[in-house]
Amino acid sequence: MNAAERAERFVALHASGCFALPNAWDAGSARVLAASGAVALATTSAGIAWQLGRRDYAVSLAESLDNARVLIGATDLPVSADLEDGFGPAPEDCARTVRAAAEAGLAGCTIEDTTRDPASPIHGFDDAVARIRAAVQAARAIARPFVLTARAENFLFGRPDLDDTIRRLVAFAEAGADCLYAPALPDMAAIRAAVAAVAPKPVNVLIGPRAGLVPLSELAAAGVRRVSAGGLIARAAYLHAMELGQAMVAGDLPRLATVPPGAALNAAMRGAEG
After folding, report:
1. β 41-43/79-82 pair status
2. pTM of the full structure
3. CA dihedral 199, 12, 31, 1 (to 10 degrees)
4. Peptide bond between residue 91 and the one before it cis (omega within 30 degrees of 0)
């Protein structure tokens, strides 16, 4: 399936209903998630960094896109990339990143309003909107569909200001973003408020509210169109490996017997050799 066909499928997924968008970090995880029934995949900047033996936010644009190409090659599903802050502070940086993402074959990407500066982690409102506007213009110049998702990161960076978050989401929507995303919203009321503010544009939610996770059906009933996992699945995989490694080193070999045989994994990987 070519890039245009995948992109068209990705756009269609946002038209109605609510779908899960699990985040893969390598070819194997992409195949496992596809075998689990996923209809599309996202990358995870955290998962890419851990795969490379680094901390989160320590990956370049080139490395992110190399990883995306691996995921694209592993399955026939649409893939959207977590492209952090657009890999630069200026609007043109975001535009250049979107163009590179499209050239890599991605069906979409996310751009955050973060700065990478711990002292001032969120771009000012006007700068944030200008960055998304430039990203949208680049996306619209692509000769096929491309889902540009704009992220308002307040709640992930110690700024629990729902009014400002919604103000940013609305401005990003008005600038032309195809999907809106504010990770770590505190509760279902906040999620419903975000959905209502940008309707009818689709909203992505990171797993669910911080007050407590809810079933996908409840998020769907609130009007959410897309639910991603961020680095959660990768984190679970690596932490489980860490726990088993610690058990083995400590001499608790029976603990390893709790791991299921690899038949299901081998079935998910079938065809990888070709």
Report:
1. parallel
2. 0.96
3. -150
4. no
